[in-house]
């Protein structure tokens, strides 16, 4: 027992994580448009492969609701057969980034972009799963899903089967929400699992006409990528999807790691090693043709809150998932699809950062705007381009804030007008600088003092020289320019 001092705590935590993982693994797979068993396979690999590796000791990996939209788009465009190749290449890229030490740089990604990404994903998941809860086919685009909801509700009202299906989905959400208000002893059973069990029992007891999960068997769904799937790599389209899988899965995993570190006092996450662990897991998932994995905050927080002390808990949860998938595949076939849709609607709702948006708006309106634009872009365009738009906005905002420049004009009524520029003069502030300089009287000499500038880019220097020539061309004295002092670093380079 001294060799495994925390065996009891880790064993009990693994049971809790397993019970949380089962409905989420199945639900994410079904929502992604792939067989339910592929979600369980990803969960198993997350436990047995990633779980054994160093990086973050207590966070748990598996299929994530945050990747659902991206996987569904990829499967729709390239087919299930190509999913393995996409996940495999994403895993190899993660391994390369981990070995090259790029993992820790993901912490530099703007939190607003990540929150906006999750918000956009949450909105698309909610809209799409409402159709699934009613047993209706959802439109393909994010905008189409949202705009089509009134029509979908109208169609559902005219169908008894659709209303029954919607009622099961709504009941599932109600159970998950209300479960947290029950005594702690009852809450030892995860709310999502309780909701699925109750929905399944209700469907069986009343012989309700709702669709259930289709079961193909664990070995039947494993499809290693074939030559045809690798042939897709010749086209440029699939590479954008591979990069999107890599960046979004990595960002979600490493942001989850930072969040999990705040929940416990144990060893801190080693980000590059965690990136390698995620890459190894996704490489194996790709070889099996399964869903991509990320670290999942829901399972990870359940693991910490259940008292886990070491990585043994997440490894054991992978063992329980394997035993369940191998010994009880028939149980999957009893689960009503609207119950899984209800779980994902709830998961999507939790991805929308209502409190963070309000807090950001009060303190940093620019960051709040980036969050909202990223979310809207994901809904309006697609996942990858929405995130790129958010990242581009974040870079522009940072560059704009870094280019603070101050122009002070002193006119004593006689003699030259003195203009002092200080700060960082970049092309972003060039229009403002030129407007102020061109407003100076044309018939007066000007002294332009640049000694207070920390940085003067080429565009600004060229524009200032052109302005000085134009001002001097009117017959006044040439503009006198006092250059900025060279930095100590520049002097050292010159001396060398």
From TrEMBL:
Q: Does the keyword Secreted apply?
A: no
Keyword terms of this UniProt record: Membrane, Transmembrane, Transmembrane helix
Could you tell me where this protein is found in the cell? Membrane
InterPro entries registered for this protein in UniProt: SLC26A/SulP_dom, SLC26A/SulP_fam
In which residue ranges is the amino acid composition biased (Basic and acidic residues)? 479-496
Specify one Pfam family: Sulfate_transp
Topological relation to the membrane, as annotated: Multi-pass membrane protein
Repeat listed as a keyword? no
The record's GO CC annotations read:
membrane
Residues in domain SLC26A/SulP transporter? Answer: 7-374
Where do the TM regions start and end?
A: 12-31, 38-58, 78-102, 114-136, 156-179, 191-213, 233-255, 276-298, 318-347, 368-393
Cite the residue spans of the region called Disordered: 471-496
Q: What domain of life?
A: Bacteria
* BP term (GO), one: transmembrane transport
Q: Which PANTHER family match?
A: SULFATE TRANSPORTER (PTHR11814)
Q: What is this protein called?
A: Dicarboxylic acid uptake system A
């Amino acid at each position: 027992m001294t060799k495994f001092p925390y065996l009891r705590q880790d064993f009990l935590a693994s049971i809790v994580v397993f019970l949380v993982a089962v409905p989420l693994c199945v639900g994410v797979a079904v929502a992604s448009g792939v067989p339910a068993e592929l979600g369980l396979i990803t969960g198993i690999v997350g436990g047995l492969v990633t779980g054994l590796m160093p990086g973050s000791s207590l966070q748990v990996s598996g299929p994530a609701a945050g990747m659902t939209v991206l996987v569904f788009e990829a499967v729709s465009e390239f087919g299930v057969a190509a999913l393995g190749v996409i996940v495999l290449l994403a895993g190899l890229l993660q391994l390369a980034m981990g070995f090259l030490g790029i993992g820790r740089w993901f912490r530099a990604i703007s939190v607003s972009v990540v929150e906006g990404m999750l918000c956009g994903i949450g909105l698309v998941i909610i809209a799409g799963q409402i159709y699934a809860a009613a047993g209706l086919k959802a439109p393909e685009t994010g905008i189409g899903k949202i705009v089509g909801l009134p029509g979908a509700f109208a169609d559902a009202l005219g169908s008894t089967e659709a209303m029954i299906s919607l009622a099961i989905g709504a009941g599932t959400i109600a159970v998950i929400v209300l479960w947290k208000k029950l005594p702690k002893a009852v809450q030892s059973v995860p709310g999502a699992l309780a909701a699925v069990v109750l929905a399944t029992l209700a469907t069986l007891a009343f012989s309700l006409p709702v669709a259930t999960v289709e079961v193909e068997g664990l070995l039947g769904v494993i499809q290693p990528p074939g030559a045809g799937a690798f042939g897709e790599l010749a086209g440029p389209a699939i590479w954008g999807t591979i990069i999107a899988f890599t960046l979004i899965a990595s960002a979600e995993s490493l942001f989850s790691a930072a969040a999990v570190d705040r929940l416990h006092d144990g060893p801190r996450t080693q980000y590059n090693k965690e990136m390698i662990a995620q890459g190894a897991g996704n490489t194996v998932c790709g070889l099996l043709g399964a869903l991509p994995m990320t670290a999942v905050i829901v399972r990870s927080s359940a693991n910490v809150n259940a008292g886990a002390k070491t990585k043994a808990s997440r490894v054991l949860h992978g063992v329980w998932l394997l035993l369940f998938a191998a010994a009880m595949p028939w149980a999957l076939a009893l689960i009503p699809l609207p119950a899984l849709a209800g779980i994902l609607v709830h998961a999507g709702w939790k991805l929308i950062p209502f409190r963070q948006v309000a807090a950001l708006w009060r303190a940093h309106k620019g960051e709040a705007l980036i969050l909202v634009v990223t979310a809207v872009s994901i809904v309006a365009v697609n996942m990858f381009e929405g995130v790129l738009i958010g990242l581009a906005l974040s870079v522009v905002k940072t560059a704009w804030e870094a280019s603070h420049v101050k122009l002070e004009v002193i006119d004593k009524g006689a003699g030259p007008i003195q203009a002092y520029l200080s700060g960082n003069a970049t092309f972003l502030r060039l229009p403002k600088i030129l407007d102020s300089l061109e407003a100076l009287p044309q018939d007066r000499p000007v002294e332009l003092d640049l000694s207070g500038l920390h940085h003067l880019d080429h565009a600004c220097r060229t524009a200032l020289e052109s302005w000085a020539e134009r001002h001097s061309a009117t017959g006044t004295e040439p503009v006198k320019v006092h250059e900025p002092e060279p930095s100590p670093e520049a002097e050292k380079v010159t001396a060398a």
